[in-house]
Design goal:
Nucleotidyltransferase, domain 5, six-stranded mixed sheet, 12 helices
Amino acid sequence: MSRTTPLFVCPLTDAERQVLRDNLRASDAFVLRRAQIVLASAAGERSGQIAPRVGFTTQGVRDVIHAYNRRGLAVLRPGSHHPGVVVSAFDTPHAEALRALLHQSPRTFGKDTSVWTLEVAADVAHAQGLTAARVSGVTIRTTLARMGVRWRRAKEWITSPDPEDARKKARRDRLIRLAQAHPDWLLGFEDDVWWSRLAHPALHAWQDDDRPLRLVEQAVARDDPAPKASACDGLLARSWEADRRRAEALWLRFVDGRPVSAVTIDVLAWCATQAAAQGKRAILLVWDNASWHDSQIVRAWLRQHNCQVTRSGCGVRLVVCALPVKSPWLNPIEPKWLHAKRKVVEPARLLNLTELTTRVYAVYGCPHEPHLMSPPKATKKAA
């Protein structure tokens, strides 16, 4: 039956013993316990006798004694918990490639989902040769954080309450595949957005405690005839060449008034003209379930327009696909609105509508187009 060889600290000098005794009054439990262990071992006590008194295991006491014999009084100072050398799974070029990869749909890489998760990103990064071995989701998150990108997991809104969610998403994905296979077809993601003159920038800044920074709340004067916000219709137009290269552009039309069915018809007619000028024969249109998109007036106009294109043999057909309700993540134009709104805000003064629209056009690099007019409300005549 084997026995553990008794282990003791090296003989202490008077100076070392005095330092250890002084540390018996330390407020830090880490320093106090280690000083107790070293002094008890120097007095001839074994590890098994010391352990119950200081609340350590026998092996824990032996580890402290080994450390003291190697490092001396330095054992009283806590060391770093971080490894001496940190090796990243992604170097800088591969980290940038990872960020570019996440701007594409997972379906582009053969996945059965349109939503990126950390595990899906790890699988695709390994398949694309960005890592030598498959890494964990934590590594993906850490790599993005190193570049200042926060991974915010979608929790409550990655599924739609629409009972026809699966069918509508399958139709959307089918239109995407058709557009990729036909160079003379155009895929369009349409949406309406409001641009506010009163929007505040979301930012973080250093400040002096005596003079804190404050954003001034803007207000529209009562005699200012301009509205507080302006409506805008946008179409994210995508097309694919024969060699599968994708081209993308954003088409914008501001609206004086509210987005209503008549404005939607004007936007669709304008988009058809733009597509015809590019030699396209069809627009596969993906949009949400807004009432001015699904109204009887818009449906009737679409039927009439497509019949006219079929009879005449010229023009651009419009094939419409409605997204599931409450599913903005399925429309890639949504994040483009978010990024642009951060860029056009003015923290110091109130913008007029001309300045606001000019900034929006500049962000997207779009040509200025005349504003569309919302028809006036019908008023009832008195009998």
